[in-house]
Design a protein that fits this description.
The structure holds four protein chains of four kinds.
Chain B: H1 2-19, H2 23-33, H3 35-52, H4 54-57, H5 89-125, H6 127-142, H7 145-155, H8 160-187, H9 190-197, H10 202-238, H11 250-258, H12 270-298
Helix pairs in contact in B: 2-12, 3-5, 3-12, 5-6, 5-8, 5-10, 5-11, 6-8, 7-8, 8-10, 10-11, 10-12, 11-12
Chain C: H1 2-30, H2 34-39, H3 45-54, H4 61-73, E1 79-80, E2 85-86, H5 87-122, H6 127-140, H7 144-158, H8 174-177, H9 179-209, H10 212-219, H11 224-246, H12 248-262, H13 267-277, H14 280-308, H15 311-315
Antiparallel strand pairs in C: 1-2
Helix pairs in contact in C: 1-4, 1-14, 5-6, 5-9, 5-12, 5-14, 6-9, 7-9, 7-12, 9-11, 9-12, 10-11, 11-14, 12-13, 13-14
Chain D: E1 27-31, E2 84-85, E3 91-95, H1 109-125, E4 142-148, E5 151-156, H2 162-169, H3 177-180, H4 195-208, E6 228-234, E7 239-244, E8 258-262, H5 267-276, E9 281-284, H6 292-297, E10 300-306, E11 310-316, H7 325-329, H8 332-340, H9 344-349, E12 358-359, H10 385-394, E13 397-398, E14 406-407, E15 428-434, H11 438-453, E16 457-463, H12 465-471, E17 486-488, E18 492-493, H13 518-529, H14 535-546, E19 549-552, E20 554-562, E21 565-566, H15 569-573, E22 586-587
Helix pairs in contact in D: 1-4, 8-10, 13-14
The chains are: A alpha/beta, B mainly alpha, C mainly alpha, D alpha+beta.
Bound molecules: adenosine-5'-triphosphate (2 copies) and magnesium ion (MG) (2 copies).
One magnesium ion binds next to helix 12 of chain A.
């Protein structure tokens, strides 16, 4: 249906020419889903935009052809192209916030393609738009037609985008990262919706994503892109099982999975992706490939037939079998739970963020970001916090290190209260609580050199002489695997992974007892992410500090922590040993979250029954009783009235649910301390 | 264990080093490549040389009124003619230029300093204090600035210093808002949280983290402020509230020229007009170029 | 929406009170003895003191301020003794002409600037854009009185097309009834404003053009015309509305200068003449009105924008 | 192209004779001077209104009317015959002519007494209510009584010089006692001779005059004794129209249908109207002097001359103690040296100052005065830098243009600096200069620049007239005496009898610079209260030599009127002093 042959795109910018796409061959058959995966900057979006004829200004198609059902698209005139766009070929973009016109109602926006292409009257178009909104799962579409984009949640907006793309029943849909900005639970729903609609409307789909798990589950065939080239393509199962290209194999190896062996170091691809402006000689991956030979560096690999049908790869030294790259190292076994006394205790912690009152004399309302959370972390233990976006993880994390003051409740470190104290009263205890931030860019002062950044904690705490401080900075760098040569640079001169390591080194400079890491790797690309994860784990084990890892990525949390807490709308719904919680989730929410995680394995069972449905309620007025009841398949009247408390369902495994998926242990003990003892 | 990892990291270095050159020279580099910006720099340098070195090359008597040679059109001995007091217009341009540039710069420095401190304090302290401080700015911003300056300039004798203070005293508001905005966005940045985590005091936050990071904005604002001050100064002069003998500035020169509009004494109007336009133009070009350069760098 | 409006109005009122305080303090600062100012140089000190006492100018500043506020609330802006007239009447007499001139200049500027700015954004980096930008830079650097003087030189002296002076008629409609006499003032006002608005419109449009919803509209197969008119325009124009509100002090100042250059009998000229007469009640009343206009303008602009752009409501 | 070359004074020094052709009707449009927009109607504006009165003396005539033809007053248009002063000078008897009010009632001696009493009431309210008032002088110590309907007797505690008396009575506007002696609208006639009643009447009338919107409709203001009544007034601009008073019996036929006075905001605006030919009569700003020929071609007559009884003086502050300025300036030779530095012919010629439209003047009496100084046209201290320098060096100063001139020989001897001037004393002071008209700033600047050449450092501060009026005058603002050394607010404009009473006598209420000289006091006393007709000349001569102020040239007033408008030349000459007589004008052809 859509055949791309040897497509190359060039973008001319003053002083440099970027080649984001080089010699890409792709075929899309009717009714199939073609997944395109690759790291950031690999040219996925450019390929999609080239098909749409919407390349950014200054870019030209320098070679190849795009054949859509017999029509050559690369040479099509603007008017004819417009007739195809939005009609025969549609596109869904990643960012649903800016992809909708803020000043027009969603009804108008969904109806627009019909008016443009089918000459439909306004009335007809709106009627059809309403049907379409219903089809993409927007409840009460007739009421929603007049809404403006800002009144919808992220998931809803993405649905509107889909309705808009599908209203003319196109034959090809290009979905460019349609779910990247969304929570796993919603991501699963949207992807499911897309697959369903695709079947229903009989169209073909190109699904662009950087998530191997997503393609594994949703694509019929997969194309892997690297540095502007398509390096491997084939049927999903075949490609995953008989991975040939060294890059694909490295990529798959570096993704932590829910079934990952925690004691084995993750594989990580060294270096960073190529600059699309650099001249392209040989295999683009050669610089980072362990198997690279001289030939790889000089000769561009030619496409080669792989084992399965339509499996093509471009690699001089293909990997021979399916096995992933063997991990080099095992982590030493930690001597589990020697210290009995908890180092960090959190007692009924609450945080409310006031928001401006609605109405003039209205009550000042507040977002209940954290609503009564209690847990403990022992010395040397790593504790994880997971949950959907907005459930209060970061708010909690900031209170743990006394960056924010709790509304009520307290945080104790070694039995001493650290919350609710002014910076002065906190004194030297301040240094014992450190944090690693999510955004490596924002967490380093752009005007400071690395050496100053690393010395700053010591300066502030008046530790050591200048010479000692420099020595300690060098040591800190070494401990995160960086050489001293980096000291004279500014943060923007470092890669994301390096910056994140500096952030970690700085947090460690004061030798903290407690380290909170808020989304430490979620801003990093897959290949870099594994480097940082490995490092964090090493440090944790070496230093024996108590750490709290916050992430919405369940696999990351599982890899890093011993115990995990699942948060929902400000409350802890399940706490327990990681393996226990992951293998035998007791809360329906935990189970749903786990079910929604896309696994980079085409054979993994997909159990849609357990998924969490619907949207997160507003934390301004959370539901009464059990907060999860509005989305829970098991909810009854009881759940609306009585708020469940944490009760044990196993050794070191508590859940707050009236109808846990695991049998409760009798007698129920609220006291987690007691349970573990 | 550290050595192996250090190697891995070291591999990443070369590629990245070329990608993002360092800060100050990067800004200057970007400025250098910005043609209009460089034009601005050249015009400015030219004007400064004209005003400050010009009198050495082309000395004129700017203190003795010459009744017989008043209001002469350009010609022998007076390349740009003379003004109504018989002062050589070309020489007067140089003298007035010095004063205009000095007042512009002084007013801008005054406004920017005041605005920066005010904005930084409001932004960092936040809460009610910020609310009150910013409402004050709102109030002052709502009052037509020129009206205020005129009333004050009419009431008190104008000297270069008072003019700078008056102009500066009313133009710090924009700077204050700008810096406050910057500080507001900076103070929730994670590096500020990180510094807090280490136990940094508010003072340290302001001086080592917040102010240096607003420096680009401050410089850009300063450049525009100089331009604006020169325009306001010219307007004041034009409306008759400029400086008086023996001091002069471009606006006052223009003002005295304008009273001879009916008599067609163009040389008293256009050359000094051109000087004002060129200066402001150059400063705006430079400011825009600096802003572009600074924004590019932080991307 | 209603609460948003009410809250916004209350904030505006607070700012207004602030303005009145500043203006009052300024009045106090620059003319310590109203009696002397009013009665003149020959009046005896006793007469001056009596005048101050009779009019309450010897009471504490705060009391006087409260009095002043109460007077303002009754619409009493004070009296210009120099002109033997209530200040309110004076302002009212002159306001229509100034308002007409300003509004026409503003509308003219917007009508030119909005399409121009959008055209520039669409043709970014091309000849039109560069040419307009260059001219804008030049004009932006030119004080408005200089623009006016050059216009007079060109179109009144070199090629005598228009008179060098604005119409002296007292009718507010002269802009329409005597366009020839009002051409130069209008062109001056429009030119200075077009420069600001067009460049602002350009960057506002550029920002919007970079948004994904424009990409989406194109992906729907919409033609450029539809993209611009149906999608871009409304989003790109709201910043201009806000800008107009924010720029009111500048517009008033521009008006003042244009009225001064072209000797157009409006508020600006009244202000300048009062300045020379040191007629402080008039000066400060107009300053106060200017502040109030700004506050009102910002309020209206915000409300209009809030209507156009529904997101604002959430942010409030 | 510099079009504005110098102007030849001779080109505008004549007025054409009255034309013999005469047509009835037509409207005369007169340009009001920019900045002087009328906003008050009661003939004596209270100080607080600072107002300019509408229609000058066209609606309410004063007892005597100013003449510019060398007479003490204009016989023809005055309401009374010349006063007959008793031998002891303590009484004057005045006989009124037969004039009527516009409502038909006769103008009587009571009306004059009424006017006199209201003037007293105004002054009792605040001395500032009458600009010409000096405590202890007219109307203090003066009584007015009506002997019969047509005879008025004035009594004086101290006799006044008869010429001075007439000039004072030129300021006494006669008002209708039979209609205005009320304290509320429709109220009963009050006995204005009772000061309390007079005060009430005064307050009522001034209050009525504060309501600009009712100037035309208020019946009070329609009762006039002059040739015109107000028919339209536009408060916004100050433009107004007058129509003839049918009952007026003075000279002139008032064939002009209507007189429109049009307000302007700039000299340029007025000039444009001449260009357009829409103005009948008006002034021409000196900056347009080069356009005189052009105006003639457009059908205008132009006449110019210095305003009578005016002199342009740089007021000296003898009480400024900053840097011993009072001691320095007290030395006559210093003042003489400074006067030598004022290049009057140069200022007149210079295109930067007067472009030729001014006349040299070195006396307080003004130009072409009936009371000329004894040195005639010969300047006592003409422009002469050498002479100035010599004066200084001869008195013990070391002249040094760069470092400043200093006193090297202190002492009181003839060749020494003078009393109170120490060795090393420099001469520094501040000149406050009015911000308009432009020639004021230009001439001050030129003067300062000359001073500098002799090492005298003067600093100019530009101030608005109002500021100077309010702050720079030792008689009413003594606290500011150290703030200014000299001030130039433009011109001294005096009554028809230009005595320096008030201005230069010790303790004079308008003696801004605290000038004090016993000889001057004696002479002023003589000219004011004596009966010697030559006393004033003596006073003028002495003052002009002693330099209580420094003298600048006096600018010429330029009058422009359509050459189709004619009338007695004196009625055009009187425009120099803003005295209008449109009732005596007529058009020579149909308009
Ligand atoms: N307008 C542009 N000008 C210059 N270079 C561009 C432009 N747009 C994209 N590029 C470059 O082209 C390359 C490919 O970009 P593309 O957006 O296709 O990547 P992608 O695979 O979609 O990445 P991501 O996962 O981040 O969306 C990138 O290196 C990018 O920097
Ligand atoms: N400063 C604040 N003011 C008001 N509301 C806030 C503030 N900070 C957080 N919130 C709200 O509190 C809730 C919890 O926020 P928090 O950032 O803790 O969530 P999170 O779990 O970290 O989400 P994410 O995964 O998106 O980072 C959210 O609804 C958020 O909008
Ligand atoms: Mg992309
Ligand atoms: Mg978070």
């Amino acid at each position: 249906m859509l055949t791309i042959r040897d497509l190359s795109v060039e973008i001319r910018r003053p002083g440099r020419t970027v080649r984001p796409v080089t010699g890409v061959d792709l075929v899309l058959h009717p009714g199939e889903t073609l997944g395109i995966v690759g790291e950031t900057g690999s040219g996925k979006s450019m390929t999609g935009l080239a098909v749409m004829g919407m390349l950014p200004g200054g870019s030209t198609i320098t070679g190849g052809s795009i054949d859509f059902d017999g029509t050559e698209l690369t040479t099509l005139g603007p008017a004819e192209y417009r007739a195809i766009r939005g009609n025969d070929i549609s596109m869904v973009f990643q960012d649903s916030m800016t992809s909708l016109n803020p000043t027009r109602s969603i009804g108008d926006q969904v109806a627009e393609p019909l008016i443009l292409h089918r000459g439909a009257s306004k009335r007809e178009a709106r009627a059809r738009a309403e049907e379409m909104l219903a089809l993409v799962g927007i409840p009460r579409p007739s009421e929603r037609m007049g809404d403006f984009p800002h009144q919808l949640s992220g998931g809803m907006r993405q649905r509107v985008m889909i309705a808009m793309a599908l209203i003319c029943e196109p034959r090809v849909l290009i979905a460019d990262e349609p779910t990247t900005a969304l929570d796993v639970t919603i991501q699963a729903e949207i992807l499911e919706l897309l697959s369903g609609l695709k079947r229903q409307l009989g169209m073909a789909m190109i699904l662009v994503t950087h998530d191997m798990g997503v393609v594994a589950r949703h694509a019929d065939r997969v194309g892997v892109m690297y540095g502007g080239r398509l390096v491997e393509t084939g049927a999903t199962a075949d490609l995953f099982r008989h991975t040939r290209h060294q890059y694909t194999r490295a990529l798959l190896s570096s993704i932590p999975t829910l079934a990952q062996d925690k004691h084995v170091e993750l594989f990580s691809i060294p270096g960073s992706p190529p600059d699309p402006a650099d001249p392209q000689i040989g295999c683009r991956f050669a610089a980072r490939c362990a198997a690279a030979t001289d030939r790889c560096r000089t000769e561009t690999p030619v496409p080669t037939e792989g084992p399965g049908e339509g499996h093509v790869f471009s690699c001089w030294n293909p990997a021979d079998e399916t096995t992933l790259i063997a991990a080099q190292r095992r982590f030493p076994e930690a001597d589990a739970a020697t210290a009995a006394a908890p180092r960090l205790s959190v007692v009924d912690l609450r945080k409310e963020h006031p928001v401006s009152a609605k109405g003039l004399f209205g009550r000042r309302r507040s977002v209940k970001a954290v609503a009564g959370v209690s847990f403990e972390v022992r010395a040397g233990e790593a504790f994880g916090l997971v949950g959907e976006s907005g459930c209060g993880k970061s708010s909690l994390g900031r209170m743990l290190v006394a960056l924010d003051q709790p509304t009520s409740g307290e945080v104790l470190v070694d039995g001493e209260r650290v919350s609710g104290l002014s910076a002065r009263r906190l004194g030297p205890r301040r240094a014992k609580l450190q944090m690693m931030f999510q955004d490596s860019h924002a967490s380093l002062d752009p005007k400071m050199r690395i050496d100053d950044i690393l010395r700053e904690p010591l300066v502030i705490q008046r530790i050591g002489t200048p010479a000692e401080r420099t020595r300690r900075a060098v040591d800190a760098l070494a401990s995160v695997g960086l050489g001293p040569s980096i000291m004279e640079r500014y943060p923007h001169e470092l890669s994301g992974g390096q910056r994140q390591r500096i952030g970690l080194a700085r947090a460690l400079a004061l030798d903290p007892d407690v380290l909170v890491a808020d989304e430490p790797v979620s801003a990093l690309d897959v290949s870099i992410r594994s480097q940082v994860l490995n490092l964090m784990r090493t440090i944790q084990l070496e230093r024996g500090l108590s750490s709290v890892v916050i992430s919405h990525d369940l696999a990351v949390v599982r890899y890093l922590v011993d115990r995990v807490g699942v948060m929902y709308l400000g409350a802890l719904v399940e706490v327990g040993a990681t393996d226990d919680v992951y293998s035998r989730p007791a809360h329906p929410y935990t189970a749903g979250l786990l079910a929604a995680v896309p696994v980079a394995d085409p054979d993994a069972a997909d159990d849609p029954v357990e998924r969490v449905r619907g949207e997160l309620p507003s934390p301004l007025d959370p539901p009464s009783g059990c907060r999860f009841r509005t989305r829970c398949p098991l909810a009854t009247e009881l759940c609306a009235q009585v708020e469940p408390t944490l009760e044990a369902v196993g050794r070191d495994h508590d859940v707050a649910c009236h109808f846990p998926l695991q049998p409760k242990r009798e007698p129920s003990r609220h006291d987690a301390e007691g349970v573990r003892a | 264990m550290t050595s192996a990892r250090a190697e891995v990291a070291a591999e990443e270095l070369p590629a990245l080093a070329t990608r993002n050159p360092i800060s100050r020279s990067a800004v200057l580099g970007a400025l250098w490549r910005n043609k209009p910006g460089m034009a601005g720099v050249f015009i400015l340098v030219g004007l400064v040389l004209f005003c400050y070195l010009g009198p050495l090359v082309y000395p004129t008597n700017q203190s003795d009124v010459d009744l017989l040679n008043a209001a002469l059109p350009p010609g022998e001995g007076f390349p740009l003619g003379t003004d109504s007091n018989g002062f050589d217009v070309l020489g007067r341009l140089m003298q007035g230029g010095q004063v205009s540039l000095q007042i512009g710069l002084l007013a801008a420095i005054f406004a920017t300093t005041l605005g920066t401190i005010y904005g930084a304090v409001a932004g960092l302290v936040g809460g009610v204090v910020d609310g009150i401080m910013m409402r004050i700015v709102d109030v002052l911003l709502s009052i037509p600035f020129l009206f205020f300056v005129l009333i004050i300039a009419a009431r008190f004798q104008a000297t270069p210093l008072t003019l700078s203070l008056v102009i500066g005293g009313f133009s710090w508001l924009v700077a204050a808002r700008l810096i406050r905005g910057e500080v507001l966005s900076l103070r929730v940045r994670e590096f500020v949280s990180a510094a807090r985590l280490m136990g940094a005091s508010n003072r340290r936050l302001i001086f080592t983290h917040l102010i240096p990071n607003t420096f680009g904005v401050i410089i850009v604002n300063l450049t525009f402020q100089v331009a604006d001050s020169i325009i306001v100064l010219a307007a004041l002069g034009y409306l008759g509230f400029g400086l008086s003998y023996p001091v002069t500035d471009w606006g006052s020169q223009l003002s005295s020229g304008v009273s001879f509009l009916a008599a067609d004494y163009w040389w008293m109007i256009y050359p000094v007009g051109a000087c004002i336009v060129l200066t402001v133009l150059a400063l705006n070009l430079l400011g825009d170029a600096l802003r572009d350069a600074i924004e590019h760098r932080t991307v | 929406m209603m609460w948003f409006v009410i809250r916004r109005v209350l904030v505006s009122l607070a700012v207004l009170v602030g303005i009145s305080l500043v203006v009052f303090l300024l009045l106090h600062l620059i003319s310590e003895s109203p009696g002397r100012a009013v009665l003149g140089q020959q009046a005896s000190q006793a007469a001056v003191d009596a005048f101050n006492r009779d009019n309450g100018y010897d009471r504490p500043v705060l009391v006087q301020y409260v009095d002043y506020l109460l007077q303002l609330l009754q619409g009493d802006l004070g009296r210009s003794y120099k002109l033997n007239e209530e200040v309110g009447t004076l302002l009212l007499q002159n306001a229509p002409r100034s308002a007409m001139l300003s509004l026409c200049g503003l509308v003219l500027a917007l009508v030119i600037a909005i399409p121009l700015g959008i055209l520039q954004a669409v043709r970014r980096g091309r000849f039109v854009d560069r040419a307009v930008t260059s001219v804008s830079y030049l004009l932006y650097a030119t004080p408005s009185f200089l623009i006016a003087l050059v216009l007079i030189g060109l179109f009144s002296q070199t090629i005598p097309l228009f008179p060098a002076e604005a119409s002296q008629s007292t009718s507010p409609w002269v802009v329409f009834t005597d366009p020839r006499a009002m051409a130069l003032p209008l062109i001056t006002l429009a030119t200075t404003n077009v420069v600001v608005f067009a460049q602002y419109q350009r960057s506002a449009a550029l920002e919007q053009l970079g948004m994904d919803y424009i990409k989406v509209a194109r992906a729907k197969g919409a033609s450029e015309r539809i993209v611009l008119t149906r999608h871009l325009l409304r989003n790109a124009i709201t910043p201009i509305i806000t800008l107009v509100g924010v720029l009111i002090p500048t517009l008033l100042a521009g008006n003042l200068i244009v009225e001064a250059v072209f000797n157009y009998p409006g508020l600006g000229l009244l202000f300048l003449n009062s300045l020379h007469r040191e007629d402080y009640p008039v000066l400060l009343a107009y300053t106060l009105i200017g502040g109030a206009l700004t506050v009102a303008g910002n309020l209206v602009a915000d409300l209009v924008v809030a209507r156009a752009d529904r997101r604002i409501e959430l942010g409030a | 192209t510099g079009t504005s070359a110098q102007v030849d004074t001779a080109s505008y020094d004549t007025i054409p004779d009255a034309s013999s052709s005469h047509v009835d009707g037509g409207v005369v449009t007169i340009a009001l001077t920019p900045g002087l927009t009328p906003n008050y109607i009661y003939p004596y504006p209270p100080a607080a209104s600072g107002g300019t009165v509408i229609g000058y003396d066209l609606m309410w005539r004063a007892l005597y009317r100013t003449s510019l033809e060398g007479q003490p007053f204009d016989e023809a248009t005055s309401l009374a015959e010349a006063p007959v002063v008793s031998d002891d000078g303590h009484t004057a008897t005045i006989t009124l002519k037969d004039y009527t009010w516009s409502n038909g009632k006769p103008v009587t001696a009571d009306d004059v007494v009424f006017s006199f009493d209201l003037l007293k009431a105004a002054i009792a309210d605040s001395p500032a209510n009458w600009a010409f008032y000096t405590p202890g002088q007219f109307p203090d110590g003066v009584t007015a009584a009506a002997t019969d309907a047509h005879t008025l007797t004035l009594g004086f505690e101290t006799p006044y010089n008869p010429s001075y008396l007439v000039s004072l009575l030129q300021l006494l506007y006669v008002m209708p006692s039979a209609d205005w002696a009320i304290a509320e609208t429709g109220g009963p006639l009050l006995d204005y001779r009772d000061p309390a009643n007079a005060a009430a009447i005064y307050h009522y009338l001034t209050e009525q005059s504060a309501d600009q919107a009712t100037f035309v409709t208020n019946p009070l203001w329609q009762i006039v004794n002059g040739p015109y009544q107000l028919s339209a007034f536009e408060p916004t601009t100050g433009s107004f129209s007058l129509t003839p008073n049918k009952e007026y019996t003075g000279p002139g036929d008032a064939t002009i249908e209507r007189v429109d006075f049009k307000a302007f905001t700039s000299a340029a605006a007025i000039y444009n109207q001449y260009e357009a030919g829409t103005l009948t009569v008006g002034r021409l700003d000196a900056s347009y002097a080069s356009k005189i020929d052009e105006l003639r071609k457009k059908g205008y007559n132009v006449y110019g001359a210095p305003s009578p009884a005016r002199f342009d003086g740089l007021v000296i502050n003898f009480a400024n103690t900053t840097d011993n300025f009072d001691k320095v300036i007290a030395q006559p030779y210093i003042r003489q040296a400074m006067q030598h530095l004022i290049d009057q012919p140069g200022y007149i010629k210079s295109r930067g100052v007067h472009s030729g439209t001014a006349s040299e003047n070195y006396s307080t009496g003004g130009l072409n005065s009936p009371y000329p100084p004894d040195f005639g046209d010969k300047a006592p201290y003409p422009f002469d830098v050498k002479a100035a320098e010599k004066l200084l060096t001869a008195h013990g100063w070391k002249v040094d243009a760069d470092k400043g001139t200093t006193c090297v020989r202190p002492g009181t001897g003839d060749d020494q600096c003078g009393d109170g001037i120490p060795e090393g004393q420099k001469i520094t002071f501040t000149i406050a200069s009015a911000n308009e008209p432009a020639y004021v700033g230009a001439r001050d600047l030129a003067f300062v620049s000359q001073l500098k050449k002799l090492g005298i450092e003067a600093k100019i501060v530009t101030k608005s007239l109002n500021y100077m009026y309010e702050n720079y005058g030792n008689s009413y603002a003594p606290d500011n005496a150290d703030e200014w050394g000299m001030q130039d607010f433009g011109a001294f404009v005096q009554t028809a009898y230009p005595t320096s009473n008030n201005a230069f006598n010790t303790g004079g209420s308008f003696n801004l610079g605290s000038y004090s000289n016993p000889e001057a006091d004696t002479l002023i006393e003589a000219s004011t209260f004596g009966s010697d007709p030559d006393a004033l000349s003596a006073e003028v001569s002495m003052l002009s030599r002693d330099l209580p102020v420094l003298f600048f040239p006096t600018p010429d007033n330029l009058i422009v009127w359509k050459d189709t408008l004619s009338g007695p030349p004196s009625t055009f000459r009187s425009l120099l002093k803003f005295v209008y007589s449109p009732e005596q004008w007529y058009f020579t052809e149909k308009q």
